[in-house]
Amino acid sequence: MKRREFVKKGSMLLAGGACTSKLSLMLIAGKFTAAKADATGSSTQRKYGMVINLNKCLSDCTACLDACRKENNVAFHHDKRWDIHRIRKVKVKRKHSKNAKEKPVLLLCNHCDHPPCAQACPVNATFKRDDGIVLVDHHRCVGCRYCMIACPYNARHFNYKENHDWPNKEQPKRSHGVPESCTFCVHRLDTGKKPACVEVCDKINARALHIGDLNDS
Known about the structure:
Layout: H1 3-20, E1 25-28, E2 36-37, E3 43-44, E4 48-52, H2 63-72, E5 88-92, E6 103-107, H3 116-120, E7 126-128, E8 134-136, H4 146-150, E9 157-159, E10 178-180, H5 186-189, H6 196-203, E11 209-213
Antiparallel strand pairs: 1-4, 2-3, 4-11, 5-6, 7-8, 9-10
C-alpha cells in the first residue's frame, strides 16, 4: 500500500471513530531507517504501520488468530495457564451507554517507539530492529519475564511448555522457557509478503487489517 493511500485510510478510520463513536485502531512500528536492499541493491527507508478497522472485524471470526498460530507454530493447549496469544480478540462496550453494543477488539504488540520491554531486559534479549520491529532473541533470553511486567499492554506471554505442534515446517521450532509476542510476521515482511493475519483477512474479504510502509512514495 502506498504512503498516501495508507495515511488517507488510517486518517479516515480514526476520524470516523472520533465522529461516529465507531472504533478503529492504528498500530505503527517505531520511527526508523532500515538499510534493506531491494532487487537493484539500493537501500530503502521503511516505517511499517498497521491499521485495524474494528467496524469490519467480524465478531465470531477467528481467521487471523488461527492463521497466526499456524504460521508461527503457536500451540494451543486449551488451558489459560499455558496458552499463548500473539493476537487476542476481546469484546468491549461503553460503560455509561444504555444501548451500547459490544465490539470485537484485536490486541497485539504495538512495537513501541521506546519499548519498555527492551528497556527492562537485563541481558538485551529483547531488542528493536533497525526497521523498528521489536523482537526477542530466544538464545540470549534467561526467562526472567521482566519484559512481561514492563509491557503496558499485556502483549507478551511466557512459553511454559515444549511445543509439539509444528504445522509450518518452514519456520523453526519455538523455544520454551522464554516470552514471546507478535512480530508482525517479520520473516514474511522481509521477503515482501504480508503478515499472516493480514493475508487471511484479505482472503475472506473482511479486509479489516491493513499494513503499509509509511515512507513508501
